Amino acid sequence: MKTVIAGAAVAAAMLAAPGALAADCGRVTIANMNWPSAEVLAWIDSLILTEGYGCAAELVVGDTQPTLTSMIEKGEPDVAPEGWINSYREALDTAVAEGRLFYAVSTLSDGAAEGFWIPKYVAEAHPEIRSIPDALARPELFPAPEDPGKGAVYNCPTGWGCETNVGNLFRAYDGEDKGFVLVDTGSAAGLDGSIARAFERKEPWLGYYWSPTAILGKYEMVRLDPGEGVTFDKAEWDRCTTVIGCADPKPNAWVTSDVRTVVTQRFRDAGGPAYDYLTRRSWDNATVNRLLAWMTDNQATGETAAKHFLKSSPDVWTAWVSPEVADKVKAAIE
Q1: Which keywords belong to this entry (predicted)?
Q2: Which of 53, 253, 275, 331 has its CA 20 to 30 A from that of 23?
Q3: Neighbouring residues of 226: CB distance < 8 A, sequence distance ≥ 6
């Protein structure tokens, strides 16, 4: 009897201990997607859920299509921290409506962004340039590297889907008639290199890019408005903007990509305060861009970058958690 009582006392003590939070949260699998912003966010979630909420967090290899498909069909993994859902919205919305999955939060509070960009120093020197038509009215300001008598618009990397979009929009805005050429950047490295060179020399630059990215964390750029009266037209986007060789493209805007944290029913029901954390964990493009730039400059892994973020940006992440949880996480990463 004494042994039974002693055993019960030990069990009660364990339940009362801080680690007892694990009984509420339990095991949670987190998709570690194969691009930097998703990788670092998966590690941030893993560290906060483990150290702050006592979860048994496990990172699993993931990518957009296989991860979201697995969550819809099998209910695993438990969390996709950075789910780019635009291409899978119908199936995901159905799963959400049926209560099998949940959109915990908009991961990027201002949404992912694509479009035509110019350096901030160009925008400040030429405040009249606010839109794509404004920029295309000034070919002399953006000289082409191979033909300075023409203006240059730098294209999306060869073979990427956005190469078609940019090409069609270049024609839709009559880029050639306005004295511009579309520059083939060849690769992501070639596109990044053209931006880096422009900034090193403080030269004008005009072309396609997207956010969040390390480049926009290192180099301040301004995204141009698509022009007066031009908004995202999905019918036109599907009819022509994304179609190779479309004969009659029209001006169009890029849709803001909807990036959500997707969570399974199992973890929503079992996670308790840990799930509540995921409903608050949202950050903007500028924050992500800066972190990705640091990650690139320091050749850091997702884990290293996550710890750097937690140490250097408490003003951001402590708003996602209670003071008690914040203290636990801070103590764990010291």
Answers
A1: Signal
A2: 331
A3: 115, 131, 132, 251, 252, 253, 254
* DSSP-assigned beta bridge partners for residue 57: 28
Quick: pLDDT tens for 300-315. 999 999 999 999 999 9
Helix or strand or coil: residue 169?
helix
Contacts with 145 (C-beta within 8 Å, 6 or more apart), sequence order: 152, 183
Q: For residue range 52-101, what is the model confidence (pLDDT) as tens digits?
A: 999 999 999 999 999 999 999 999 999 999 999 988 999 999 999 999 99
Helix (H) or strand (E) holding 104: strand 101-106
Task: Please answer whether residues 244 and 159 qualify as being in contact, where contact means their C-beta atoms are separated by less than 8 angstroms.
Answer: no
Residue 221 main-chain phi, psi, to 5 deg: -125, 160
Radius of gyration of the chain (CA): 24
Name the pLDDT band for 24 (thresholds 50, 70, 90): low
Burial class (CB in 10 A: 0-12, 13-18, 19+), 184: middle
Token pair of 122 as six digits? 């160009």
pTM, entire model: 0.84
Q: What are the tokens at 242? A: 């994304």
Least confident of 3-12, 205-214, 255-264: 3-12
Band (pLDDT 50/70/90 cuts) for residue 298 is very high
Closest CA to 86 of 117, 64, 62: 64
Q: Which of 243, 68, 272 is nearest to 169 (CA)?
A: 243
Can you tell me whether residue 105 is helix, strand or coil?
A: strand
Higher pLDDT, 21 or 332: 332
> What is the rounded distance in angstroms from the CA atom of residue 20 to the CA atom of residue 26?
10
Angle at 39 between CA 328 and CA 165, to 5 degrees: 140
